[in-house]
Amino acid sequence: MGLLSFLFGCGSKSGPFAKVDGVWKYEDATVVGADAASFEPLSDHYAKDKNHVYYADSRRDSREYWSVKHYRVDKLDGAHAPSFTYLGHGFAKDKERAYSRGEPIHVEDVATFVAIDPSFTRDRVTGYYNRKAIAGSDGSTFERLDDHYSRDASRVYFSDMVTTDPSKYRETNVSVQVAGADRATFKVAELRYATDAKQVFHDGKILASDGAEAFEVFLFGYARTARQVWFEGKAIDADASSFAMQEGLIAEGVDARDGRGWFRGGKRVQRTPGSVGAPPPGGA
């Protein structure tokens, strides 16, 4: 009957939320106590009516081998429904609080709080990375550069999730000012590398203080300037002038070469005798 009602106009659907026979549901979970007439889905997880705000989600149980989704709908206690607004990227706010994934979070100024992406947010006071304030940042001029780098009117920042307890998969977010970076000429590259007019950076730390104009990023974590080659931000013993990637030879145990030999994962390796492909210039 519910399906027939939906097909013939007695039901409505907005993402995972659906109104069936006058009752709002989130997948197979009923939104208990909802005012059907004023109910309004705001995203795939948030909804509100004239009285309450709701957050809906799913979970899986390891005892079921993660194979079954269980849906739930929670009423957000204390949320002010008339002023509640969805900001995007899992964030929301009302006139008094900001929220992330249905939980209240601390921000300096709720009125100016906006979501930039799933990790970066800001208000007029400060920028945030994964809901933690970036110390020293100016929120009014704060901007995201990529998944890790950001900047404001005077500084550049690097942010990341750092593992604190591998056995329990615990992580904490860390943001640092990129010391010595020239904000005006700072540019992000791939694989957590970046440059300014004179320097090369990786993970927010200076790698080289000259040669930025010749900087290149390659596959698999390799990068170079005119004088140095790096792998995942660490200098390796390779000749920069003859360094080249060898993506087509990965199956043979190598991924790069210079004039003196072959590399795999940033380390020198020996090619298998008789393997296909020309030897590097100057030696096998």
Write the layout of secondary structure elements.
Blueprint: H1 2-7, E1 12-14, E2 17-20, E3 23-26, E4 29-30, E5 40-41, E6 46-48, E7 53-59, E8 70-75, E9 85-88, E10 91-93, E11 98-100, E12 103-105, E13 114-115, E14 120-122, E15 127-129, E16 132-133, E17 143-144, E18 149-151, E19 156-165, E20 170-177, E21 187-188, E22 193-195, E23 200-202, E24 205-208, E25 216-217, E26 222-224, E27 229-231, E28 234-236, E29 244-245, E30 256-258, E31 261-264, E32 267-269
Structural overview:
By secondary structure, this protein is mainly β. It folds into three domains: 1-103, no CATH class; 106-177, no CATH class; 189-284, no CATH class. It is 2% helix and 39% strand. It has a four-stranded antiparallel beta sheet. The protein has a four-stranded antiparallel beta sheet with strand order 5-6-7-8, with no helix packed on it. A hairpin with a 4-residue loop joins strand 26 and strand 27. The longest helix has 6 residues, at 2-7.
Largest sheet: 4 strands, antiparallel
Radius of gyration: 26 Å
Gap between N and C termini, in Å? Answer: 74 Å
Number of domains: 3
Poorly predicted segments: 1-10
- Extended strand count: 32
- Proportion in helices: under 10%
Helix segment count? Answer: 1
Strand content: 35-45%
Structural class: mainly beta
Q: Give the integer mean of the pLDDT values.
A: 89
Shape: elongated
- Which strands sit side by side, in order, in the main sheet? 1-2-3-4
Nutshell version of this structure?
The chain has 284 residues and is an all-beta fold. The protein has one helix at 2-7; strands at 12-14, 17-20, 23-26, 29-30, 40-41, 46-48, 53-59, 70-75, 85-88, 91-93, 98-100, 103-105, 114-115, 120-122, 127-129, 132-133, 143-144, 149-151, 156-165, 170-177, 187-188, 193-195, 200-202, 205-208, 216-217, 222-224, 229-231, 234-236, 244-245, 256-258, 261-264, 267-269.
